[in-house]
Amino acid sequence: MTETSSLVDVLVLLIAAVLAVPIFQRLRVGPVLGYLVAGVVIGPYGLRLIANDADIRHLAELGVVFLLFAIGLELKLSRLLVMRRLVFGLGSLQVLVTGAILAVIAWSVGVTPEAAVVAGAALGLSSTAVVLQILTERGELNSRTGRVAFAILLMQDLAVVPLLSLVSILSGEAPSISAALGLAALQAAAVVVGIIAVGRFLLRPVLRLIAASNSTEIFAAAAVLVVLGTSWLTAQVGLSMALGAFLAGLMLAETEFRHQVEADILPFRGFLLGLFFMTVGMSVDLGLVMREAATVAAIVIGLVATKFLVNFGLCRLFGFSNRVSIHAGMLLAQGGEFGFVLFGLAGTLGVMALDLTNILILSISLTMIATPFLAALAARISAGLPDHAVVTPSRLDEAGEMSDHVIIAGFGRVGQTVARMLEAESIPYLALDLHADRVAEGLTRGLPVFYADASRPEVLRLAGAAHARAVVLTLDHAGRAERAVSILRQAFPELRVFARARDRSHSKILQQVGATQAVPETLEASLQLGATVLRAAGVTSGEVGRLLDEFRADDYARLDTAISNHPERRLGSRKEPAEQV
To answer: Hey, which of 21, 95, 467, 474 would disulfide with 31, CB 3.0 to 4.6 Å?
Structure first.
């Protein structure tokens, strides 16, 4: 790859992205499709403007690596453990059931048994890059749909090692099934445990040492080293590079450096992920599409339909609503990037004919291109379902069986912020609001939002207030907030009520009528504004934090005293103490 040709290739990629992405954003189909179509146009089967597409593909794989690293930064190990039922239960079933059904279909149309098994296993995987990017763009990564999709994708990444071993076994290269799978599992487990141990005990002190040098360039280099180093380690034992990056992000999420690291890798992630989508588009052989149009169309339609039905059925089996099941089913209905790897290995080892692998790889690429349309179709289909419409109080009886959850009264900007914070710590909640548009928007995102009046005791009973951790009142109308607090205290004397107050005097009134704690928004706004000014003036973050704590302590002294006098009013679980909101 010469210096001149490299520069030309980079210029072509940048021009294609700059032209295509804004156009597709204006069409409201998202940048992912823009990158994919741009790749088709400039690739070796389009205008042939890229001279060294193989080298670009290797570089573009890092886009998925940085995406999974960023996802890991947004999680915590404790939250991932909460999701274990979805990851190992729903995720494992999806891999096994989808792979088995697709293998039977492939065998029934004349594919050899060995090739059918590989086809089923590879086509059963979905695209981590495409799905997570779409969820991120729509702000749905932390919704129920996002959690379901992420859990399944994570299990699929874990399944790559045994699937690669399976291809070797079917080719006769591996000595035995048990030995091959056992060795692969031991190697993978050793590397994963090693990464977690290093991250837990060594990563924080090393980063503190680097941060003490006060060199942002060195710190950014260290962040990239952590990402690429863990990715390389997992790749050495057959796991995906993306999984290694995810584990690194998960470990860094437990440190105080997570936000700075995220800012450092953000430019790499955006550009390289776009590059990855463009390389997927480059793999679309338009000539093969024309020659094998009927076969490719049948595979694409059959794959999407089969995976959607299986995903939908499994989501319903695990208790998710029709709306969430449809969204997750459609989002995961495409083939994935690891299918390219499995089919490439199968073709090299002679398990599958090269003509068949080329057609299947092409079909996967087309399903990935179709995913933004499938996501939009899922939203349109679910819009006609009762689950998607504005929910009346009578539907709250489904939520009444919840316990240790938080009830959010009012789902405006404040309520949504509280909801996101609760989701970040895996604390269950449901929200009540009388604005139909807010409720509809929340339901579209798969959030537990109900159209109901939180000041009515019967509504709160249906919402499970008797077993709730707390009620959070975010109403912006002072009179309504006071009435709601008074009614709540009368109907549920033991229920903890945290309220939004307009100022100090309003905070005092709300506490007098029964609020456990009332937070004056003017005070918090002034504190944050002052902190911003201090940082701009060059005051260190540590000093700013100390001043914030000092001023906040002075203003909340009386409220904090009230809380300490009533420890039973804290937000922790009724079964065991937990941190306050």
So the answer is: 21
Kindly tell me the burial class for residue 48, based on how many C-beta atoms sit within 10 Å of its own C-beta (0-12, 13-18, 19 or more).
exposed
pLDDT for 299 equals 94
Q: What structural domains does the chain harbor?
A: 3-385 (1.20.1530.20), 389-569 (3.40.50.720)
DSSP code for 493? T
Question: Does 390 or 510 have the greater pLDDT score?
Answer: 510
Q: Measured at the alpha carbon of residue 381, what is the angle toward residues 376 and 384, in degrees to the nearest 5? A: 130
The string of pLDDT tens digits covering residues 115-136 is 999 999 999 999 888 898 888 8
Q: What percent of the chain has pLDDT over 70?
A: 84
Is residue 277 predicted with pLDDT exceeding 90?
no
- Name the token pair of 9: 């290739």
Find the Cα–Cα–Cα–Cα dihedral 499, 501, 507, 511, rounded to 10°.
-20
205 token code pair: 């002190």
The pTM assigned to this predicted structure is: 0.61
Query: How far is it, in rounded angstroms, from Cα 161 to Cα 288?
Result: 31
Angle (deg, nearest 10), helices 177-198 and 241-252? 30
Q: Name 97's Cβ contacts closer than 8 Å, sequence gap at least 6.
A: 310, 314
Distances 382 to 180, 332, 385 between C-alpha atoms, Å = 44, 16, 5
**Surface-to-core class of residue 439, CB atoms within 10 Å of its CB (0-12 exposed, 13-18 middle, 19+ buried):** buried
Q: Residue written as tokens 């999407």?
A: 304
